[in-house]
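Worked example

This section walks through a single chain of length 82. The input is the sequence exactly as stored; nothing has been trimmed or padded.
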Amino acid sequence: MKTIINSNVERIIEDEMLAKYEALGYKEISSSKANDNAPENKPLSKMKVDELKALATELGIENTDSLTRDELIAVIKEKKNG
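Given that input, the structure is written out below as tokens.
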């Protein structure tokens, strides 16, 4: 697993996907920096919409483009709590 960043949007990806994301402008960040800024270490209420959408995507939540910030928080909490 690799942690990458582009315009303050962090993603955790499989190693073999790194080249694809680098072509899109993402850069790999060190694991210590990633842990400090990881979305799971930041309260949902403090996250920006782009961060919430990225986290939702990482959790396997689809069709997030039309969701409001509050709706994103609700579906992320639901997904995390099972």
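What to look for: Strands lie at 2-6, 9-13, 27-28.
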